[in-house]
Design a protein that fits this description.
5-stranded parallel sheet, 2 domains, homodimer, Rossmann fold, 489 residues
Chain lengths: 489, 489
Amino acid sequence: MLKEWIAEEKPQAKELKERLDAAHEKLAVLQMKIKEHKLPVVVLIEGWGAAGKGSAIGSIIRSIDPRFFKVASMAEKAEEEQRRPFLYRYFAQIPEAGKFVFLDNGWADEICELKAQGELSREEYHSRIDSIKRFERQLTDNGYLVLKFFFQISRKEQKKRLGELEEKKDTAWRVSDRDRWQNKHYDKYLEVFDRYLRDTNVAGAPWYIVDAEEKKWAQLQVLETLCSGIDIALQNESLAVPLLQNVFPLVKMPRLDEVSLDKKIGEDTYKEELKQLQSKLSALHYRLYRKKIPVIIVYEGWDAAGKGGNIKRIAEALDPRGYEVHPIASPEPHEKARHYLWRFWTRLPKTGHIAIFDRSWYGRVMVERLEGFCSTNDWQRAYNEINEFEKELSQWGAVIIKFWVQIDKDTQLERFTDRQNTPEKQWKITEEDWRNREKWDDYEVAVNEMLQKTSTTYAPWHILESVDKRYARIEALKIVIRALEEALD
Amino acid sequence: MLKEWIAEEKPQAKELKERLDAAHEKLAVLQMKIKEHKLPVVVLIEGWGAAGKGSAIGSIIRSIDPRFFKVASMAEKAEEEQRRPFLYRYFAQIPEAGKFVFLDNGWADEICELKAQGELSREEYHSRIDSIKRFERQLTDNGYLVLKFFFQISRKEQKKRLGELEEKKDTAWRVSDRDRWQNKHYDKYLEVFDRYLRDTNVAGAPWYIVDAEEKKWAQLQVLETLCSGIDIALQNESLAVPLLQNVFPLVKMPRLDEVSLDKKIGEDTYKEELKQLQSKLSALHYRLYRKKIPVIIVYEGWDAAGKGGNIKRIAEALDPRGYEVHPIASPEPHEKARHYLWRFWTRLPKTGHIAIFDRSWYGRVMVERLEGFCSTNDWQRAYNEINEFEKELSQWGAVIIKFWVQIDKDTQLERFTDRQNTPEKQWKITEEDWRNREKWDDYEVAVNEMLQKTSTTYAPWHILESVDKRYARIEALKIVIRALEEALD
């Protein structure tokens, strides 16, 4: 589409000024509405080197209260970021409800640069495109407004600008080798940009090509499109979103009432096996670290099922420098104001590290579903969103292990009563636990649906029988060890 | 996505039956809601030969009142259809508001077949994909629910079914050479289908892959997805749609007040030129016919500007077997119930023919805009939709000529008064003409915007100065002749 595009005629100076003033004024009004309607806005500013992206952002934000926006400059990846999935640093930057984020170069630039440099195979390119389309859809499906601008200048204009920058001492540093290379291979880049724009031009997050040959005119195009995009998004509150088919390979899971809960293990065998398995896991952890394989372990289960003790037995075997346990409670206000997966994206381990989640993103289809913290459309959509999320992690190379720690209702009652009656355990039991217990049957329906719909070949669920907690711990260790050995082979 | 997909486990017979009954019942209820909310639903049933598409449709429609749906079987293209743009026959089939259309093979099949047979170049394939994405977006943007199903069976199952059909005399005719060829080249088709599904899987019109190894189970998948899709669409009434950027190459147009209206032509010169130009046009018409080039001429202009007489001078020169004039008034109820472009798609000329539109799809951005017959979002979106429509026609090979017949306000008054005072002309003037005249200034704003935004290199506007009607007629003939000569070179 970039190749077919012809710039609109630039308005005369007087008209340009008037429209710029009007657009700035309008944006100043709209920022308050965004705040009020809790609309989060992601603005991608992409395009050629020296096309004036930075100065356009500089001009636009003049109309916005500094508390309501952030500019994220995506320069070279830090080591931290290189060791995370490629979308990590973009997901981390998404704004809170009611605020703007301007990305000075977003994800388009990263992919196009790799493609132009010949560093992505055809297959890898298509896989990245799929990831990006999913990512953008997950944002827009969850109420984000995503506006994507491409700043277009001709080869000649780019050359002229680079020359001017290089001439002056103060600005010469702004011209990188990459800029020069891009200008030299302009036609190749044009091909790559054109293809990328076509591949990712979707109705929910369309591209706008900005004629960037002149600064003020470029600013006006962005401002006016921004205002019109916000106007439309404000009309579409509480939009229901189509439920996409789960095209991920599912593993058949038993229903919870089909799980036998009679497995036991003797005290001596337990101690012996525990020691042996932990030392095996410990050795594996070092090998993972050297091979830079990231590992994600998820614990979900009934209250008092024994998650904490189970996690402890895994963690004991690990080098503290190479793992982290994330206890997941209700989201904090700044977390609640973002996409529900944001607090998990930002807690992903680095390559070679292990992250253990004590409760997780599955809250969306359990507690958030049952307590009405999200709409029906939201949690129904979440199965696919979660499978997409875990697919992203798996493509990155992560080993994903998910445990459902299972007990029966009577066992829970016993343990609750014991906690209640034992002073040093009383902190572990709250009113909320008792309230949740009353909803056992509803939870069972939700858990069964979750197990059926999110157990994929690349991130399967494992049900841990935990009436005998020792049995469950040994099982968990065995499953983790098996999964890691497979990944290391 | 087809290649990664693994079928969900089929439910047990009892559950299957219960869910089928429930889904049929639900659909029966939903059809009334669809009617009530005026939701048009397009259901594409695509997939492998012998996958059971027909019988699935047969089962689904059992729950629907026959007045509320139509099944369109897209078999071989009739000659009529071959001489129209490839989307013509699909656009022609779109349902009225409140009704279903089931397409037994839709547009996916056509493209995939051509691609598998090696009859589309890479560039042609991408161009078709772009056309299809635009088409589907134009439907969903204008309130259509588009559901796309792909019926998947294995190579082995397909072979088995084809064998069974061939064995019996009654069914042998149902197996085509194409089916056999497809089974023989299963892997190739799988590749093509997979690519197509990925390329056209958009949030507004996503794909659902149906496990079609067993009939009832396939029906259930379609029924349940259909119901859930309708549920969601019903929640999204009066949705505002993002305004896409006009990425089509625009030609600069003057504003109406910049057009001089002083051109004149003498009676004698007129007669002479008219005769000469008409005979030239006549000769060109035969050449166009032989070269099978379709021509579309659009007339828009002020009331009493002289459109009728102008069209007459063009038509006189044409062979009546090769052209048609379409006078466009307010839409009929069955037209109003469909996408606003439907009545124009269905009036497209065959290749080699000429269609003259006396008023046209530009009503959307003039009368419909000013009289509030559509929402602001609707007419703002229409500039791009119209450019896309004309792009489709131009890619098909059509010559598109658009006239704005221009007079000033005083001239209109003169002509109105003359009509009023001349008994044989009184039928030409109505109360509405006087009412429209009062809105002259509003119309002028709308016309100027239309001219700026829809004059593309492939379908430019021509302003005809028509204070002297004879001058305008000679000009129109010259412009038409020039455009046709260019196309014939």
